[in-house]
């Protein structure tokens, strides 16, 4: 996900308007959100509000150079004072996400013109199914990654 193309940062826009609708870049939230096709709406995280496991949150990630990237991932669990977040299409979790870096919570996705609210029964089933199948999906994805790496190594030697 990239910076807003205008004068506002995500933080400023959410503070002023309360919600932010945006088209992401990246594949970390597939199949829920497809890059350059779907839009999502996030509402501002209110003071004192705590994200719950399975909420999809917008948070800041800081690089080693201090650059800020905005990330939209699902809260997997809360550990002490921080959160563990994981994109639906990711293998590795984002650990130590601080509450002060979480700016908003996903409220809806516009997929091909159809609005999906996070309260819809179909979405809740998706979240349940995605959580239940997570260990198998991650195992399969890791196997695929290793197989591709091995194939590349073999092809380089040929």
Give a quick set of tags describing it:
single chain, Umud Fragment, subunit A, globular, 158 residues, eight-stranded antiparallel beta sheet, alpha+beta
Could you characterize what this model shows?
- There is one protein chain.
- With 158 residues, this protein is of the alpha+beta class.
- It has a single domain, classed as Umud Fragment, subunit A, CATH 2.10.109.
- The chain has helices at residues 10-17, 121-132, 134-157, and strands spanning 19-23, 39-44, 56-62, 68-79, 82-86, 94-98, 102-111, 114-117.
- Strands 1, 2, 3, 4, 5, 6, 7 and 8 form an eight-stranded antiparallel sheet that branches.
- The N and C termini lie far apart (38 Å).
- The relative contact order is 0.15.
